Amino acid sequence: xxxxxxxxxFRRRRVHVLLIVLALVPVAIVIALKLSGGPEGGQGPTxxxxxxxxxxxxxxxxxxxxxxxxxxxxxxIVAGDAVAGEAGxxxxxxxxxxxxxxxxxxxxxxxxxxxxxxTATIVVAVAGLIVGSLLFPVGRVTTLSGDTLSLSGGxxxxxxxxxxxxxxxxxxxxxxFFASTLTDVAxxxxxxxxxxxxxxxxxxxxxxxxxxxxxxxxxxxxSFADVLRTHITWTSIERNLALQAGYVAVFVSxxxxxxxxxxxxx
Length: 266
Hints:
The chain has 266 residues and is mainly alpha-helical. The protein has helices at residues 2-10, 13-36, 57-66, 70-81, 84-89, 92-97, 102-135, 151-168, 170-180, 186-204, 235-260, and strands spanning 141-142, 148-149. Helix 1 crosses helix 7 (102-135) and helix 4 (70-81) runs antiparallel to helix 7 (102-135). The longest helix has 34 residues, at 102-135. The mean pLDDT is 88.
């Protein structure tokens, strides 16, 4: 069942378009830097002003720029469509006719969303790495601590950063997955997920609400940058992963509770 869900997802033109758009973001960034000569020192998002000196930083710059909007948008679309999309098309009850059961179907959907989170993130990182390497010189990677790593060591750290970004998206994905079990209208589930994303970002930006910031799933999204230190600082990373795991546990459980007792008419 899981393999069938994966094939169904990655054969959809909508998903192809989403992945192409994600890949074009780092391409556009690097081309703009090449044409403009790069940002002035200290300006722009983390890693952006280092791309012109070392093309491998294009992958990290792309992850930094796509994480607040582009990656969450694609995850919201896929997660919100997971169950509601089937109901809207009238195929959900036919899927449930098979003897696999609701729990197994829900697990297959959840694992498919997980794979998409990693796929989307890898697409951004690889596209940035390729175009950055083609348009700018590459070499030893300077860490945030001021030391340097070998090129291969730097690429390993970039892979770790991409994995952390993918894991950071799981809390949002779980929220979208739960929303998808509440309605037969996929666009409604997508919109609700995006609304919660925006709300979390707004609350995180208000200093007076600092007491709730550690509980917002967006709060430590940029903690992946800590893997680019000579000695990796794990504190923020561990807090982020623990929080995402908590969101996944709560909202996937809620999705199962809702879907297991839901009357499926479509």
